[in-house]
Design goal:
The chain is mainly alpha-helical. The chain contains one helix and no strands. The longest helix has about 45 residues. The termini are far apart. This is Putative small secreted protein. Belongs to the EcnA/EcnB lipoprotein family. Pfam families: Entericidin.
């Protein structure tokens, strides 16, 4: 019984790890797009940097 539970946990962990690759890639793309929007907005407002 313990062996079955261990194998099930290993399988779930493996599937989670494999699916996380796509999730992290998608999240990285979302963050990149958000950063580009912030940069565009900053350029449009013509704000100045403070030292």
């Amino acid at each position: 019984m313990k062996r079955l539970i261990a194998l099930m946990l290993l399988a779930m962990f493996s599937l989670g790890t494999l699916s996380a690759c796509n999730t992290v890639k998608g999240a990285g793309q979302d963050v990149k797009k958000a950063g580009e929007k912030i940069e565009d907005t900053a350029n449009d407002t013509g704000g100045t940097e403070t030292p």
